[in-house]
């Protein structure tokens, strides 16, 4: 508890300068904001007498009755500047200005599947609602709170029930702008029919639910395994774009600062095997919401341990300020604090030995579904599990004695990099 209190204080102080430089303005923008607030309530289609879903009512009661959370959830919306950029959320909807309207919209969101849009928050409607609030000092603290994250986990689990239902397929339509099988979506997924197991001749392309669509599988042969008989070749674990490559990683570091260095003890939740990776190498890459969301083993070997670690869903580091697609710019930071899965594999190649795959949930993408078991032998390229409901990020972790040469297709890891195919060659061990 003391450590979390200290972290909350540190985050708030780091963000103080950003808040001071973005104080709300009055006058015309205030009047415009009041108009936007009316549109928010119209968008929710509810008034103050609406019927709350039980999980959302629980969240409302938690905020209303907890003095610390009441303060933070009130302040996080007050700390969003009243300037033109922040009158709308990043998707273009009127910006929410209090937590009760936030809850009204969440109450609506979890009864439907997200429509397609061309923004960086496609498939993340709750993230869009709280996006600017995530970038405030109060939001940085509130979204690290264990009680908040336990309730968000319940809300997202409730939403998952709907997203696994046949009714969720309603958005798998051909509307040119909003449908996931329409003009704009197919431009974002130009090889959907050629690459994936889909049936354009069937309703909804043959998908049974929204989640079935998002966890779709490649057609046989579309993503061959790199050098399947050569254990010196490491395969890409996800269809993902290089974000960061770090060497000589420390046991503990100040992961919340601008550079977001990795802090092993926090990343791996003090796992008994974590010390072996001190001084080692970490490769991180991110997945797109319109891409492929299953994970595959980068090596052949035996699964020696798996873990699911509870954490945050909408936390971002205040060092980045207001991120138009949070927590994209906090991907290093969230590897320490977000909901995540951890798989240790003892590679058949002794030059690799013990390595780890870490799957990190981002916002709505909180379901780290591990499909392998301890003691199972996996071949390079075999499925390890999947994310549900959208894109996310992951890391591969190697011990310091492992000497690697990475092939990132000439790219410098960043948010501007492009996907490397899953199961393609990612690195070789010397």
What does this structure look like?
This protein is α+β, with helices and mostly antiparallel strands and 430 residues long. The protein folds into three domains: 161 residues, no CATH class; 46 residues, no CATH class; 197 residues, Distorted Sandwich (Glucose Permease (Domain IIA)), CATH 2.70.70. Helix content is 30%, strand content 16%. The strands form three sheets. A seven-stranded antiparallel sheet has the order 2-3-11-7-6-5-9, covered by helices on one side. Helix 2 packs parallel to helix 5 and helix 5 packs antiparallel against helix 6. The termini are far apart.
Quick description:
The protein is α+β, with helices and mostly antiparallel strands and 430 residues long.
- Which architecture of the largest domain per CATH? Distorted Sandwich
Across the major sheet, the strand order is: 2-3-11-7-6-5-9
Q: Which class of the largest domain in CATH terms? A: Mainly Beta
The helix count comes to: 13
**Helical proportion, percent range:** 25-40%
Give the uncertain stretches in residue-range form: 1-6, 16-37
How far is it from the N-terminal to the C-terminal residue, by CA?
Answer: 44 Å
* Content of β-strand: 15-25%
- Total strands: the figure is 13
The CATH topology of the largest domain corresponds to Glucose Permease (Domain IIA)
Mean pLDDT over the residues: 90
Described by the principal axes of the CA atoms, the overall outline is globular
Structural class: alpha+beta
- Rg over alpha carbons: 22 Å
N to C succession of SSEs: HHHHHHHHHHHEEHEEEHEEEEEEEE
How many structural domains are formed by the residues?
3
Main beta-sheet strand count, sense and barrel state: 7 strands, antiparallel
